[in-house]
Specification:
There is one protein chain. The chain contains 3 helices and 6 strands; from the N terminus they run E-H-E-E-H-E-E-E-H. The chain is of the alpha+beta class and 98 residues long. The strands form 2 sheets. It has a 4-stranded antiparallel sheet. The protein has a two-stranded antiparallel sheet with strand order 4-5. A hairpin with a 2-residue loop joins strand 4 and strand 5. Helix 1 packs antiparallel against helix 2. The protein is globular, with a radius of gyration of 13 Å. 23% of the residues are buried.
Length: 98
């Protein structure tokens, strides 16, 4: 059976980052909180980053939605500077968020 996915819209505050750095922040937070096994089950995938608005989209398995949101919220520091990853919206597809 196919896993259902949800899209999380998020923003990074406290530091201006590009897409590559945003992907690194998201991966660090998910792998740091969930570990490799649970992160692979969550199948979180970085989808898009808007550098101007400092907002992006992330897809993940619905069964691990709360764990992924918690992992994002717990990320407090990147390269020695304080940051905050905020969850903005949750929906089933990206066009609904735009």
């Amino acid at each position: 059976m196919r896993e259902k996915k949800r899209v999380i819209a998020f923003s990074i505050e406290g530091l201006r980052v590009n897409g590559k750095e945003a992907r690194l922040i998201i991966n660090e937070s998910i792998f740091g909180f969930l570990g490799e096994l649970q992160a692979s089950k969550a199948s979180a995938k970085f989808v898009r980053w808007d550098e101007g608005a400092q907002q992006g989209f992330l897809k993940c398995n619905t069964a691990f939605l709360q764990e992924v949101i918690a992992a994002l919220a717990l990320k407090k520091e990147f390269r020695g500077q304080k940051i905050a990853v905020r969850t903005l919206k949750l929906l089933g597809s990206i066009p609904r968020l735009i």
